[in-house]
Specification:
17 helices; alpha/beta; 7-stranded mixed beta sheet; globular
Length: 502
């Protein structure tokens, strides 16, 4: 029965053998090796596993897995079990009558327990756990819980777009909101004023921070929960999908010892992710990197991060002043939103610091005129800004279900596209969660402040003039990139309009 050889680095499949859920509690797993079902255990839980096996009539070979392989298989079992449990939670939640006071004293999620391995019986607790589980599984960035006149609704933001998840009775939704308040250390009795908090969840051995915002509306409280990522979730510049030409130019700009690099775009265009990807490329033990953010969306072990707290007077501007007394080499400012922050950031860039930040402008050259509008002198801008990256996140059509868009083909001339071009639109299938899109890709235009731009900034100049200079210097615009995606059938005309590029 026993095979004493320890097996390493296997990616094994789940086998739901007889009474596998009970075996799971005793760290006994079932899998296949060479098409034969075997028992998998690990040395870390050997006594518990063998104690269980000694009481069972299981005539299977036993293999030993190293800790990494065992944990990977164990988490697969947990996910399989959780999927089954969550499928009928909604019905259970609607039928159950739960005492709100019982929920308020539960400390379940404040422990280090993994929400997928919990045996808690309270239906509301299970339902809230399922919201987190499904959000992570669908790779959503936000969870929206809102109350209407006759019902409540949960929606997930997936690939930048809200997707309806479930509808529930209003009374149940009020209990869900109370549960979220409890785990976020918010006042459960206060329903008249907005509240902000944080909580942490553990899913499949991975801890995620959740930022919680609660807002009173006409029909009840509305909750938005932002899932904040860890440093190991930060993609590299190459993985963002930005072209090799732009990433190589960006990498060259980051080699400067001082100056400012700006990332621009509307809300939800991936600016923070790009900034952190840039920081990951330059971080080293020799550099002191400090950020001031609102909020800290990616927690990193090698970067000193400050979170804005306006209630105690810690703004971007005041935080930036304090950072400059901390002997930084690299500074990242989450957002330049006023002239004071812009002025301090420019001065920091001029005095030997490499500064990264974001602005809310649609195109890269517009950032220069925005800073001028904030009251900054042109010569300071031309001396300090190294480059501006404008970007968008564009959803990609699902290759399994995309269909020809006959209606859009009649409007191609308006978008400066060939009228005979065959374009596609989203349809929806199980592979894309019936959205018609699978994943997103970043497109970007990089506006490098070279001698031609510096010369132009000595005089009055507008966005269009700067754009023409940039194009003449070889900048590939966002418009041309998204048109290429439409021509290749990678995205739809509707998506191009949604992200605001024409």
């Amino acid at each position: 029965m026993f095979n004493s050889k320890e097996i390493h680095n296997l990616n094994l499949e789940v086998v739901e053998y007889d009474n596998y859920e009970q075996a799971l509690k005793n760290f006994v797993l079932f899998t296949k090796i060479d098409e034969n079902i075997v028992v998998a255990v690990t040395k870390q839980h050997l006594s518990i596993s063998f104690d269980y096996l000694s009481k069972q009539d299981i005539d299977l070979d036993v293999i030993f897995l190293n800790e990494q392989s065992f944990d990977r298989l164990y988490n697969k079992f947990i996910e399989s079990k959780t999927d089954k449990q969550m499928s009928d939670i909604t019905q259970t939640t609607e039928e159950a009558v739960v005492d709100e006071d019982d929920i308020s004293i539960s400390e379940f999620l404040k422990t280090s327990s993994d929400i997928m391995t919990s045996e808690e019986s309270a239906p509301i607790i299970k339902f809230v756990n399922s919201l987190f589980y499904q959000a992570v599984k669908k790779k959503s960035s936000d969870i929206h819980i809102e109350l209407h006149e006759f019902k409540g609704e949960v929606r997930y933001r997936v690939d930048g777009v809200l997707v309806k998840h479930i509808e529930l009775d209003k009374n149940i939704m009020s209990l869900v909101v109370s549960r979220i308040k409890v785990i976020s250390d918010l006042d459960i009795s206060e329903k008249r004023v907005p509240q902000d908090g944080r909580t942490a969840i553990k899913i499949a051995g991975k801890t995620l921070d959740i930022r919680v915002s609660i807002l009173p509306t006409f029909y009840g409280e509305r909750v938005v929960m932002r899932i904040l990522m860890q440093s190991d979730d930060i993609p590299t510049l190459e993985n963002l999908g930005i072209s090799d030409n732009i990433t190589s130019k960006l990498a060259k700009l980051t080699q400067n010892s001082y100056g400012m690099i700006l990332v621009t775009g509307p809300t939800g265009s991936g600016k923070s992710t790009t900034l952190h990807a840039l920081l990951q490329t330059i971080e080293s033990p020799e550099k002191n990197i400090i950020t001031v953010e609102n909020p800290v969306e990616y927690k990193s072990d090698n970067i000193n991060q400050i979170q804005v707290n306006e209630k105690v007077g810690l703004t971007f501007a005041s935080g930036l002043r304090s950072i400059l007394r901390q002997d930084p080499d690299v500074i990242m400012i989450g957002e330049i939103r006023d002239s004071e922050t812009a002025s301090i950031a420019i001065q920091a860039a001029l005095t030997g610091h490499l500064v990264f930040s974001t602005l809310h402008t649609n195109r890269a050259p517009a950032s220069i005129t925005r800073l001028i509008d904030m009251g900054l002198e042109r010569f300071l801008i031309s001396s300090s800004i190294l480059g501006v990256l404008a970007q968008r996140l564009v959803r990609k059509l699902c290759d399994d279900c995309k269909v020809e868009d006959i209606v859009a083909e009649h409007h191609l001339a308006e978008f400066d596209l060939d009228e005979n071009l065959k374009v596609y639109k989203a349809k929806g299938c199980p592979n894309c969660n019936h959205t018609g899109y699978v994943g997103r890709v970043a497109i970007a235009e990089l506006f490098v402040i070279d001698d031609a731009v510096k010369s132009a900034l000595q005089h009055e100049v507008d966005d269009e003039q700067l754009m023409q200079i940039a194009i003449a210097n070889g900048m590939v615009t966002l418009s041309s990139q998204i048109k290429s995606m439409i021509k290749n059938g990678t995205t739809s005309l509707d998506e191009a309009i949604r992200v605001g590029i024409k």
